[in-house]
Design brief:
Shape: globular
Number of strands: 9
Strand content: 15-25%
Order of helices and strands: EHEHEHEHHHEHEHHHEEE
Radius of gyration: 19 Å
CATH superfamily of the largest domain: HUPs
Number of helices: 10
Bound molecules: adenosine monophosphate
């Protein structure tokens, strides 16, 4: 595995891989790697028996542009030594670890990418500027790496919808793929931010996924009223945890549009604070 923090070096290496006829795959991350991140490397392997035809670029960049002023940019967990080992073991070909200076040499970029509508609510309304920061850095990464494919995790489902929309609207020649959420044994969605949880919070956190599963069962049993299902989730979380609910929403899965009745493909998404730690989770349901 090659590792570089420089855009030029990355471009040289990707160009060589292309000359060798390889398919370039990008997996953007903020590091502090866990099985959720590494499952995307595994997913590339499953895409084709001929694993050698892929050139897998993983980026690790804690992007200041996507953090609000009162968010956790400064304390976001980082461990590049461990990440390098895990990426190598997983089969990453090139690890791109740019500095803030390398990505934003003149300070925060003057050009921003704004994806309207799909960023209006859910995490968008609670984290102003977040998706602008995400869309801007991901378009930079797309332009730097010029990948054929890019993987995003279902854990951040709204982010996936935003990137899909951006790629479509701006005709970016990359195929965006969704990787399923990887969970701890007790159901908690893996997240670098889980490291912030106190023992008692960690113990309660799996209730989020259980409440989502219960909602899915309710829908499978015939319930179609969005408010009934949301209320059921709310009750379970308030009864069984000290978590503070930020939102519980059920939306059309393709464009996150509001609905009153459940039909077709929907996403049930929530954000809950445990102490100062904000956890998100979601499931996709089809009726
Ligand atoms: P992050 O490092 O949290 O910015 O995540 C980088 C990428 O990994 C994003 O596309 C995430 O959606 C994805 N990801 C994070 N956690 C998980 C998980 N538990 N399962 C699957 N993908 C994940």
């Amino acid at each position: 595995m090659k590792i570089t923090e420089y855009i030029n070096t990355l471009r040289e290496n990707v160009a060589v891989a292309r000359e060798q006829g390889k398919t370039v795959v990008l997996i953007p991350t903020m590091g502090f790697l866990h099985s959720g991140h590494l499952s995307m490397v595994e997913a590339v392997r499953k895409q084709d028996e001929d694993y050698e035809k892929f050139y897998i670029v993983m980026s690790i960049f804690v992007n200041p542009l996507q953090f609000g002023p009162n968010e956790d940019y400064d304390r976001y967990p980082r461990n590049l030594v461990r990440d390098t080992r895990l990426a190598q073991e997983a089969g990453v070909d090139l690890l791109f670890t740019p500095s803030v200076q390398e990505m934003y040499p003149d300070g925060p970029s003057l050009t921003r990418v704004n994806v309207a509508k799909v960023t209006d609510d859910l995490c968008g309304s609670h984290r102003p500027g977040h998706f602008e920061g995400v869309a801007t850095v991901v378009s930079k990464l797309f332009n730097i790496v010029l990948p054929d494919f890019a993987y995003f995790g279902q854990k951040d489902y709204q982010q996936y919808v935003v990137i899909k929309q951006m790629v479509k609207d701006l005709n970016i020649p990359v195929q965006v793929l969704l990787a399923p959420t990887v969970r701890e044994e007790d159901g908690l969605a893996m997240s670098s931010r889980n490291a912030y949880l106190r023992p008692e919070e960690r113990r309660q956190a799996p209730v989020l996924y259980r409440s989502l599963q219960e909602a899915a069962q309710l829908i499978a049993g015939g319930e179609r009223d969005v408010n009934v299902v949301r209320e059921k989730i709310r009750q379970r979380i308030t009864n069984e945890t000290n978590g503070k609910i930020e939102y519980i929403e059920i939306r059309r899965a393709d464009n996150l549009a509001k609905i009153e009745r459940i039909s077709g493909a929907v996403v049930i998404a929530l954000a809950v604070y445990f102490g100062s730690t904000r956890l998100i989770d979601n499931i996709l349901v089809e009726v």
